[in-house]
């Protein structure tokens, strides 16, 4: 018989919503579990088509969530904001 005890102290998965300011001063919003890795991918033009025509400059905003679902909902809400509203959020 195998031991089926629950795993204690298992780290929760953290999801982040982030905003990156691009070289043309536009703002890109996304989600990830690793902001540094994702920023590097954007710099290497791997991933979001948004960065094929502009360069990421800096991460200007982050929020942490315990689930992908919550992070995705917040990402969608931020994407609906105007540029002025996003700048105010920063």
Annotate the secondary structure layout:
Elements: E1 15-22, E2 27-32, H1 35-43, E3 56-65, H2 68-79, H3 83-89
Antiparallel strand pairs: 1-2, 1-3
CATH class: Alpha Beta
Q: What value does the average pLDDT take?
A: 90
The low-confidence parts are: 1-7
How would you sum up the major sheet? 3 strands, antiparallel
How many distinct folded domains? 1
Number of helices: 3
Counting copies of identical and different chains, the oligomeric state is single chain
| Beta strand % | 25-35%
Sketch the topology as an H/E string, one letter per element: EEHEHH
Helix content: 25-40%
Give, in spatial order, the strands making up the sheet with the most strands.
2-1-3
The best one-word shape is globular
CATH architecture: 3-Layer(aba) Sandwich
Number of strands: 3
* N- to C-terminal distance: 54 Å
Q: Could you explain the architecture of this structure?
A:
14% of the residues are buried. The chain has a single domain, classed as 3-Layer(aba) Sandwich (GIY-YIG endonuclease). The chain contains three helices and three strands, in the order ββαβαα. With 90 residues, it is of the alpha+beta class. Strands 2-1-3 form a three-stranded antiparallel β-sheet, with helices on both faces. The chain is globular and about 35 Å long.
């Amino acid at each position: 018989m195998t031991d089926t005890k629950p795993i204690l102290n298992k780290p929760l998965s953290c999801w982040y919503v982030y905003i990156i300011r691009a070289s043309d001063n536009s703002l890109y919003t996304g989600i990830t579990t690793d902001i540094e890795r994702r920023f590097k991918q954007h710099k290497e033009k791997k991933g979001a088509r948004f960065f094929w025509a502009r360069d990421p400059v800096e991460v200007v905003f982050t929020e942490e969530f315990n689930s992908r679902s919550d992070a995705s909902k917040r990402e969608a809400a931020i994407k609906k904001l105007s540029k002025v509203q996003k700048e105010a959020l920063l």
